[in-house]
Write a structure and sequence with these properties.
single chain; mainly beta; Immunoglobulin-like; four-stranded antiparallel β-sheet; three-stranded antiparallel β-sheet; 7 strands; 14% helix; 42% strand; elongated; signal
Length: 150
């Protein structure tokens, strides 16, 4: 009888500990990466505008960050961000990510054109939904996608 009680108590305690370790269920967030367009086609220094659709619970996050990585530049990245409002409803915003072209670096009188965004270029985008506070950031959700620059 004691042995059965001990076993039942152990199972109940283990279950309670597993529940406590798992913590609360993750809040519902959604991130979707839309078109990535060159802001001013033909301008090597033009940023890339990335359309993001998001949804998150009230107060859960307040910033979207987009990181673009150009495979031609050995992992060099550029970032852009936008402040957002989480209210439980879907929202859409456009985040501008600066160009990889280095303004002022002359090559035959122009910019390093291979570093600029080009139509048809495949680029890696990482989008993060962030709870941003001075001195402390918490990534709430993230998604990585390859996009074709339009």
């Amino acid at each position: 009888m004691v042995r059965g009680t001990f076993f039942a108590s152990t199972v109940a305690l283990t279950g309670a500990l597993m529940l406590a370790a798992a913590g609360p269920a993750a809040a519902d967030t959604r991130l979707s990466v839309g078109p990535a367009r060159i802001a001013t086609p033909g301008d090597p220094a033009s940023p890339l505008n990335v359309e993001i659709t998001y949804a998150c619970d009230p107060g859960q996050a307040n910033r979207l960050e987009v990181k673009a990585e150009n495979g031609n530049l050995d992992g060099e990245v550029r970032r852009g961000w936008a402040d957002v409002v989480c209210d439980g409803e879907p929202g859409t915003t456009t985040v501008s990510v600066e160009s990889f072209a280095r303004v002022g670096d002359a090559v035959d009188g122009g910019l390093f054109l291979e570093d600029a965004y080009r139509e048809g270029q495949k680029i890696e985008l990482t989008v993060e939904l962030i709870k941003f506070a001075p001195g402390q950031n918490e990534v709430v959700d993230s998604v990585m996608r390859y996009a074709i620059v339009q």
